[in-house]
């Protein structure tokens, strides 16, 4: 079944001088693993942000998990419930512990603190980081931080995970580790996984590859 669709989506910046997306159409089915590739500036992040409702199109329709995003009046609730974000630079909060960082997305949900703790420990266990739960984020290596970011992305059991260069800041060993976790998650939980990558080998692990150029999908 279809989980994401875009119809003739256009997005410009700088008063229309930069066309980040130019008439994009996509359809992604539930449980798909899609990689997005293309040169720098081709619109990959804009496309991902559009799916995650972090940005709105100038024109066209975006439908995610049965909801028309332009008509949705509570986008932050939608994001917290349906979407897990993983960014290249983790976006973790350095003054908080590992566990507190994982719990951030649950604050906007009505989840009591006992349940929050249970969920964050389960996920940290899954990521091989249970014994680091109370450490400050700054004590962790890059690979460990990226696994914390994945745990945080999963904490509300999202149906869609959006990852922007999730292995981009890691060495190849840690990159493979992070990727294997994502792949396993996709295989075991039927999560729809959409990932931007510069790495051809990584892109090939997906079931579908979207190639972008100049704000358009070229294949
Ligand atoms: P990619 O992820 O493929 O590198 P982006 O989606 O980040 O591409 O960017 C597409 C184009 O839109 C680029 O020319 C970029 O400079 C421009 N762009 C993206 N975000 C903004 C913004 N917030 N303000 C101005 N220009 C932007
Ligand atoms: P690592 O690469 O550090 O071993 P994994 O995520 O593969 O990280 O595993 C971390 C821990 O979580 C391991 O102890 C593993 O047995 C456990 N684990 C892995 N997958 C699952 C799963 N689907 N359900 C429960 N526990 C799991």
Automatic annotation (TrEMBL):
GO CC annotation: membrane protein complex; plasma membrane
Listed InterPro entries: AAA+_ATPase, ABC_transporter-like_ATP-bd, ABC_transporter-like_CS, ABC_transpr_LolD-like, MacB-like_ATP-bd, P-loop_NTPase
Superkingdom of this protein's organism: Archaea
EC category name: hydrolase
PROSITE patterns xrefs: ABC_TRANSPORTER_1 (PS00211), ABC_TRANSPORTER_2 (PS50893)
EC identifiers of the protein: 3.6.3.-
Keywords: ATP-binding, Hydrolase, Lipoprotein, Nucleotide-binding, Transport
Pfam families: ABC_tran (PF00005)
Domain annotation ABC transporter: ranges: 4-218
GO molecular function: ATP binding; ATP hydrolysis activity; transmembrane transporter activity
SUPFAM superfamilies recorded: P-loop containing nucleoside triphosphate hydrolases (SSF52540)
PANTHER family linked: IMPORT ATP-BINDING PROTEIN
Protein name in UniProt: Lipoprotein-releasing system ATP-binding protein LolD
Gene: lolD_2
